[in-house]
Specification:
Elements (H helix, E strand, L loop, with lengths): L3 E9 L2 E7 L8 H9 L9 E7 L7 E7 L4 E2 L3 H13 L7 E6 L2 E10 L2 E8 L9 E3 L7 E6 L3 E6 L6 H9 L9 E7 L5 E7 L3 E3 L3 H13 L6 E6 L2 E7 L6 E5 L2 E9 L1
Parallel strand pairs: 2-3, 4-6, 11-12, 13-15
Antiparallel strand pairs: 1-2, 1-18, 3-4, 4-5, 6-7, 7-8, 8-17, 9-10, 10-11, 12-13, 13-14, 15-16, 16-17
């Protein structure tokens, strides 16, 4: 007999995932479920599957596992972590407005901005950026130099006027020999008003409306290359994120919205 699982569709700046509370429901094969459920024609439709669970360590309050639309497991997702903060608070799983979330890239602290019991925005401490061959040239049909930044998962940021080439360049660069574990790709452009317009190719999902770790990586790359200071506004296809790379602790803080889309039920 098939079992029924309740799920919640949420998005952060258009980056949409399917969320399952594993305190209540068990997903035996999340890799396979992510592929089937993420299909936008034959499934629920999403950028992937997120499992919310108990933390196995006392240092964190809850845990997160995230699977891309192709079934691969990701280390971290900033947009998903903001959505988890809203889910946990508004669905009554916690009364805390500061939540410690265990991810595969460490414990992230979520600060909830609450008005009248509604989580309007969430700030995530994304910890310190990591660099490996900080600037390198990869043949990319004239797009030029890029900057590698890890925010718990790998990103390669290229500043160019041709950001709409992300659909063409993304898959090529994701699988480039320079990235044996594949890579997330951002094409970014600094606008006249100082905002940074960014388009994203996510490893394992393709073009997405937004990427929280990608926004952080873009802001760090902009600062490293002298294109911006330590505070940036990143404008993505699905919305805007506020990123601060604090000098005091070298941590990157991401602030942005989270929203419920709908609840549903699926058989497995």
């Amino acid at each position: 007999m098939k079992e029924k699982i309740l799920f919640t569709k949420m998005h952060g700046a258009g980056n949409d995932y399917i969320y399952v509370n594993t305190l209540l429901y068990y997903v035996a094969n999340p890799e396979q479920a992510a592929i089937a459920w993420s299909d936008r024609h034959k499934g629920i439709g999403s950028d992937g599957l997120v499992l919310i669970g108990a933390s196995p360590v006392p240092e964190a309050d809850f845990s997160m596992r995230i699977f891309n639309a192709d079934g691969s497991e990701a280390m971290m997702c900033g947009n998903a972590s903001r959505c988890i903060g809203k889910y946990l608070y508004e669905r009554g799983l916690t009364t805390k407005t500061s939540i410690r979330l265990l991810t595969l890239s460490g414990i992230k602290v979520l600060e909830l901005h609450v008005t009248d019991n509604v989580v309007e925005r969430v700030t995530v401490d994304m910890l310190e950026p990591q660099f490996e061959n900080a600037e390198q040239y990869i043949p990319s049909r004239g797009l030029g130099m890029g900057t590698f930044v890890s925010m718990g998962n790998p990103h390669f940021v290229i500043f160019t006027d041709f950001i709409d080439q992300v659909g063409e360049m993304g898959p090529m660069l994701e699988h480039h020999l320079a990235f044996p574990q594949r890579c997330n790709i951002e094409l970014a452009r600094v606008e006249a008003d100082g905002t940074i317009r960014t388009r994203v190719w996510e490893r394992g999902s393709g073009i997405t409306q937004a990427c929280g770790t990608g926004a952080c990586a873009t802001a760090v790359a902009a600062c490293l290359t002298g294109r911006a200071g330590r505070h940036s506004t990143i404008v993505m296809d699905g919305g805007t994120l506020d990123i601060e790379w604090r000098e005091s602790d070298n941590h990157v803080y991401m602030t942005g919205p989270a929203a419920f889309v709908f609840d549903g039920e699926i058989e497995i």
